[in-house]
Amino acid sequence: MVKMLALGMQIFFPLAFFGGLVLIPIHLSGDAVEKSGQTTKSINPTQFMKLTMTNVPEGSPLLWVHCLLTVVYVWYACWLLRRHFRQFVSIRQKYMQRGGLQ
């Protein structure tokens, strides 16, 4: 259970930190929510909507940052899962060699 919580924290905290450090300024720099709210009444331009990918204008090169970070996030999570799985296998093999529960 503790290893699972540690894995969750090791995945979540760096991704949240770098995501907030990189993506929030990109989202706040856009004005797509305000422009679309003026043309149609279907989008309510709330403060939260300004923090999402919706606020980046369509066709903007900044959308590639999302794509790149998604690839980096998935790679990091897979690498971390592999590392934890190798530790688990090592612990399990030592346990089985010892004879299990005695």
Task: Look at the helices and sheets and give the structural class.
Answer: mainly alpha
Low-confidence stretches: none
The proportion of residues in beta strands is: under 5%
Overall pLDDT score? 83
Tell me the number of helical segments per DSSP (H or I, 4 or more residues long).
3
Rg is: 21 Å
Q: Could you tell me how far the N terminus lies from the C terminus, measured between alpha carbons in angstroms?
A: 23 Å
Number of strands: 0
Outline, from the CA principal axes?
A: elongated
Largest sheet: none
Portion in helices? over 70%
Query: In total, how many domains does the architecture comprise?
Result: 1
Query: H/E order of the elements?
Result: HHH
Please describe the structure with a list of short key phrases separated by commas or semicolons.
102 residues, mainly alpha, single chain
Description:
- The chain has 102 residues and is an all-alpha fold.
- The protein has one domain (2-98).
- The chain has three helices and no strands.
- It has helices at residues 2-29, 32-39, 63-98.
- α1 (2-29) runs antiparallel to α3.
- It starts with a helix and ends with a helix.
SSE blueprint and pairings:
Blueprint: H1 2-29, H2 32-39, H3 63-98
Helix pairs in contact: 1-3
Please outline what is shown here.
By secondary structure, the protein is mainly α. The chain has helices at 2-29, 32-39, 63-98. The chain has one domain.
